Please model this.
Amino acid sequence: MTTTRADTQVTTQADAPLPAYRVNLMRVGYLLMVVGLALVKWPLFFRDGGIASLPVYEGVVATLLTAMSLLALLGLRHPMAMLPVLVFESLWKLIWLAAVGLPYLVAGDHDAQLSSVLASVWLVVIILAVTPWDHVWRHYVRASGTPWRRV
Model:
C-alpha cells in the first residue's frame, strides 16, 4: 500500500518487491509449464487433422492447456504480472486431485488413464513450491479490491 504524505511516498512491507531469487524460482515454474505442455500439447496441432480430429472435450483441454503454456511463456519475461497463471495451475490441479484423483485411488479404481493423468498432475508440487504464496495472500486476498464505481 502506497500513501502520499506531503508529496512523499511511504511504502509498506506488503509492497516490497520479491527478492530476485524468488522471482527466478517463479521462472522455473513457468519454464516447467512451457516445456511440459510444448512437448505434450503443441504437437497435437500439427498431426494429421490437428486439434479438430480430437473428440470435442479433448480438443477443449488441448486448446486451454496450450493457451496456458503461452501465458506461461510470457511469465518467463514478466513473472510477477503472470503470477495468476501459477495460481490457476495450482488450483485446478489441487481441485482435480481432491475431487477426481483421490476418490479413484481410495476406491482402488486405478487404471492406465488415471496413472497418466496423475503422472502429470503430481508436478503441481513444483508449482506450489515456486509460487510466492505470501505475496499472493497479501496482494490478492487481503488487499482492498478495486472499487465497483468511482469514488
